[in-house]
């Protein structure tokens, strides 16, 4: 009963948003909140006596008084990245809440429609345009928050709150039974419609089926309960990794232990990261930030084993020593509830459940592909494993490979096999010349043209950022623009990533905007470009290939309409 009341109360609050003129600025902690009021009965047991609701504080952000909202709603050519942070944040909150109100109003219209009157144009299309604007605003805010946001104690909380709000508002339509029935009706018809419309309807249908929509109310409630447990324990798992007190620190003073490590790794591990990272000392801990560099570049087997053991057994020790929350038990709890979710929908395993609701033509086709891939990969893996074992025994005197040795041995064996010194190799790959050469290669392969338009007065978060236009000269098409932000800054909290910030839209005359982020250390020498070590070169190759896929698509029908939120694409480091 509580979810129903919560949903209806929330929508009651949202229906006021279209004409809201609240003057109090919003914060990330003043959105809708619902709780239950309990009283103590004579039997000393709590019973529910009622419910209370705190309605959202809606920012007074409109196109007339908020430059960021005006930029999006007026379909301006380029995102407003230099707007004051408070204005961007409040504008995005306002747009997300108004989108939630739009969805609620649309669902009320669907309730009054007859099944024979349902079409793609009156079921799905009415909210696509506003959803595109909302996602565009959210991605622009996301970009600003991870690359150029004022540092404060509330940054992480604000970041997570806007993230949570965006997920809730954009996915809210999938929780309406009337919407599920309408989309199901569209999918069951054999009408000839555009391919992208059919796939878009299928996407919504599979999303709702995967959450037990269409099942009995009892089964749906059970599924939702298990899903809530999964979300809770996933958050708990991440907090344990971040806040664990069981993180043994080892101080290393011998430079020979990290003799193969590139400057970027030494800087990451150094006690003094600004000036003495080459001389040390270096602090080795089992944290997400340092565990991979240590396992990859530390030549001391004992240190690698210690870090590995601490990492795989991370546990948080609360103030009460009576109980220790282990991530091993957390993972087992997640696995158990995932299995129960799958069983409720008739699947033997959670893997089968996940596979059934993907956009593949059928699970059988996917299984056939994965089995064939495993059959071909197994001999290669066995061959490489033998090569690693031989190298470890001959060069490192390690006769039994432990999991903690694999990162280090794989790297050393590859360098020996190909006779490559990765520290010497990096001098051949300064960032900007390497990036420009990659664009030339992509131009040749895809027949597209990249042109540096940084000097055209488009908003940038920092002067180091460069912007490129992407065109197809053969077809005379403007495919989009590429925003490249490669270097570290004191208030930048993202690592390597690529993000589709805006889809192309003919109605708004928008082209695509794609962001490429990195956090490369700036060279200490003014005349020297930042050099790319082997792993950084790998990251560059991977993420540039990711971002060229959406930008180089010429057949854009499905791509521009299939709007989805890239919520988890940016790797944020706090």
UniProtKB/TrEMBL annotation:
Q: Which UniProt keywords apply?
A: Hydrolase, Metal-binding, Metalloprotease, Protease, Zinc
Q: Which GO terms describe its biological process?
A: proteolysis
The chain positions of domain Peptidase M3A/M3B catalytic read 294-543
Per its UniProt record, what Gene3D superfamilies does this chain match? Neurolysin, domain 3
**Superkingdom of source:** Eukaryota
Molecular-function annotations in GO: metal ion binding; metalloendopeptidase activity
Cofactors demanded by this protein: Zn(2+)
InterPro entries associated with the record: Neurolysin/TOP_dom2 (IPR024077), Pept_M3A_M3B (IPR045090), Pept_M3A_M3B_dom (IPR001567)
* Cofactor binding comment, as recorded: Binds 1 zinc ion.
Q: Which PANTHER family match?
A: LD37516P, PROTEASE M3 THIMET OLIGOPEPTIDASE-RELATED
The family note in this entry says: Belongs to the peptidase M3 family.
Q: Quote the protein name from its UniProt record.
A: Peptidase_M3 domain-containing protein
- Annotated organism of origin: Onchocerca flexuosa
What does the organism's lineage look like at the top? Eukaryota, Metazoa, Ecdysozoa, Nematoda, Chromadorea
